[in-house]
Amino acid sequence: MKQNFELQELHSFGIPVEYSSLLEKCIANLSSFSESIYLTGSWALKEGEKTSDIDFLAVVNNVSSKSSIVEILKKYSTRRMNRRVLDAKVIMKSEIQRLTEPKLRFYYWNQIHSGILLFGNKFSAKFGINESVIEVLLGELLDTHNHICANLESNLMFTGTAALLYETVKTAYYIERYLGFTNTGKTSKNQFIRGILDESYLLARNCYYNSISTSPDQMELRFLMKTDSKFKTKDYRNLLEAAIAFKPFLLEEKREIVRRY
């Protein structure tokens, strides 16, 4: 049976009325093509801030429905401070079931596991997320971390590298939630990222949102890695220090996974 979340309740999450109204209209147009629609991201965790976009995920059955939703979403491209107000992802159930890359499996598992069902049937696919998958994911994050530090040490591609670090820290936050670390349960995602990136937080966050190359039907975030000239040596050094200080978090998560596995 179809389930519907009372969208009026979104106001209690702190979502501005005008944006929850926009979301409601959008979902009304998407519902006939969707199997499930989930509110995801910061607002689903009740951690949204005034500058937070509204993330949601539409799960569909076929290519035709996916194409229809992508076209509808073009009508809801309202932007605020050079960012979309509604940030949607659309994926077919068959695509989710075929996911093999640990990062993508964890990303979509987390979207649904931590999300709030706004419309449709609860999606019950088995993602196969376990300690073995998380261990592989952490290995990939550590490799990414090495790449980030190499770029920063060489003063290369600040925007894309800062965005990649922001995304890596965010993924580490969700891994800590998966592991059930007590301190993370008391800390919001933005507080966690801000605590890691320190004085580079706002700069890295801006780089993250300014360099994302994505569309609703694109399954993976891609960052525009380009040569930058507007950033100072100090910016690279500060971000490098934050990246170096972040590595022990990844190593601690890996030790915990190995201990459990």
Structure in a nutshell:
With 261 residues, the chain is an alpha+beta fold.
Structural class: alpha+beta
Number of helices: 11
Provide the residue-averaged pLDDT: 85
| Cα end-to-end separation | 38 Å
What is the alpha-carbon Rg in Å? 19 Å
Structure description:
This protein is an alpha+beta fold and 261 residues long. It has 11 helices and 9 strands. Helices cover 55% and strands 13% of the residues. The strands form 3 sheets. A 5-stranded mixed sheet has the order 1-7-2-3-6, sandwiched between helices. A two-stranded antiparallel ribbon has the order 4-5. Strands 8-9 form a two-stranded antiparallel sheet. The longest helix is centred in the C-terminal third of the chain and has 28 residues, at 233-260.
What features would you highlight for this structure?
two-stranded antiparallel sheet; 261 residues; 11 helices; single chain; five-stranded mixed beta sheet; Beta Polymerase, domain 2; alpha+beta; globular
